[in-house]
């Protein structure tokens, strides 16, 4: 199986719990990379410890994971999805491209913790490789757009 296929096997188990997992990933991102919270106007001024039951965190976590899932399902033919994601994050949200690497690294950690039987070393490697491809494609779009953040 390809890395894309491997990632999609686990992703099928993630989707029924997408809201809860998305929230955990965002909270972990804010805990491990405090500077990233500044890019989220709805909760940038709220302490991370108070965000656990925040509806906006849950909603945004769901949005993030749905977008990521849509890209994963394309199995490498994701240029339109990645372009859409880059456009919104370059022009509307002004999110630096390295944040995609941060959140995908957190996603691998969280999925490994939540699905230890499924997230074997091989699956972790597959997710890491797939996420690296996605992040590199995003970074290239940022360069083309001359993003100044």
- How many strand elements? 0
Radius of gyration: 15 Å
Q: Estimate the mean pLDDT confidence.
A: 94
SS-based structural class? mainly alpha
Main sheet, how many strands, which sense, barrel?
none
- Global geometry: globular
Q: What are the segments in which pLDDT stays under 50 over at least 5 consecutive residues?
A: none
Strand content: under 5%
Helix percentage range:
55-70%
Report, as a whole number of angstroms, the end-to-end distance. 38 Å
Number of helices: 6
SSE arrangement, N to C: HHHHHH
Features:
149 residues; mainly alpha; globular
Outline of the structure:
With 149 residues, the chain is mostly helical.
Structure in words:
By secondary structure, the protein is mostly helical. Helix content is 68%, strand content 0%. Helix 1 crosses helix 6 (121-144), helix 4 (79-92) crosses helix 6 (121-144) and helix 5 (98-114) runs antiparallel to helix 6. It is globular and about 45 Å long. The model has no long low-confidence stretch (mean pLDDT 94).
Topology:
Elements lengths: L2 H12 L3 H15 L22 H19 L5 H14 L5 H17 L6 H24 L5
